[in-house]
Amino acid sequence: MLTIIISVLTAAIGGLIGTYFGARFMRIPEEKNKKNIREIAIKALDIIAKYAKKSYREAENEFNNTLSITEKRTVIVALHKLGIPFGVPYNELFNIKKIYFVDKEIDKEEIDGIILQINNGYCDNLFYLDPDTYFASNYTLFAMRNAGKRYVSEILSKSKVDVEKNILIEPVDLGQVFSLGEFKAIQVLRDQVRDQMYFDKNGQPIQEKINSLIRDIELGLWDSYLMWNYEAYQNTRIQIQMGQLMNGMATKQTSTSTQKVQIE
C-alpha cells in the first residue's frame, strides 16, 4: 500500500515539475522575441529622438534608411497608435519602403514616455499589426486631410480679401483643382477657414498662419469639419441662426415692454 502511495505521489510531483519547467522553457523564446521587438521599436524612437525640437519630416530619411522593411512592418502601427505622426502624401498610397511623417515638432519628453511604455511591455499587443491593412482602413481620413491641406496651400494661401467688400477672392475655380468628391470633403473646412485671421489688414494671406493651419490639419485637429456632411452643416447653421433671431426678437420685445412700464 505504501509503495502505491509513493508511486502516485512521485508521479504527481514529477508531473507538476514537468509542467512548471515545460511552461517556463516555452516562455523563454517568447520573452526573448518580445525583447527583440521592443528593441526594434526603441531603435526607431532613438532615431526620431536625435531630431528633438526639429520637425518629424527631418527624421524621415534616416528612419527609412536605417530600419529594414521587416522592422518597420513589425513596429510602425504600434508607434502610430502611441503618437508618432505618420501620414500618407496626397498623391501617393501607403508605401512601407518610404514612410512619411507629418510636419510636427519632435518632443523629446514625449518620445521618452513612449520608450518607457515599450520597455515595460505595455504595448506588446500592438506589435505585428499589418500596416497595409491599418493605413488602408484609415485612407479615407488621410485623403480628406490631404484635400484640406491642398485647399489651404493651393487656394487659401493665394487668395486675397477685398477689404472694402469684405469678401474672399479665390485665385482659381475649385473645379480645376479638385474632383467632386474632394470638393465635397472640403466644403465645411473651406467655410470655416475663410476667416480674416489668416489675412493681414491689406487682405493678403499671412504665411505663418497658413503654415500653422496646414500643420493643424495634418495633426487631425480639423477632422470633425472634414467628416461633417455639408448639408447637415448648413442645416445646423440655419437652426442656430433661427434660434439667435428668435432670441433677439424675444429680448427686444422684453426690453420694449420693460421700457413702457418704466415710462408709464
Give the arrangement of secondary structure elements.
Blueprint: H1 2-49, H2 60-66, H3 69-81, E1 86-87, E2 100-101, H4 108-119, H5 131-137, H6 139-155, E3 160-162, E4 167-169, H7 180-193, H8 207-218, H9 223-226, H10 230-263
Antiparallel strand pairs: 1-2, 3-4
Helix pairs in contact: 1-3, 1-4, 6-7, 6-8
Any low-confidence stretches, pLDDT <50, length ≥5? 256-264
Number of helices: 10
Across the major sheet, the strand order is 1-2
Percent in strands: under 5%
* Helix content estimate: 55-70%
Sheet having the most strands:
2 strands, antiparallel
Distance between the ends: 116 Å
Structural class, please? mainly alpha
Query: What form results from the Cα inertia axes?
Result: elongated
Provide mean pLDDT, rounded. Answer: 83
Rounded to the nearest angstrom, the radius of gyration is 30 Å
What's the total number of strands?
A: 4
Helices and strands, in order, run as: HHHEEHHHEEHHHH
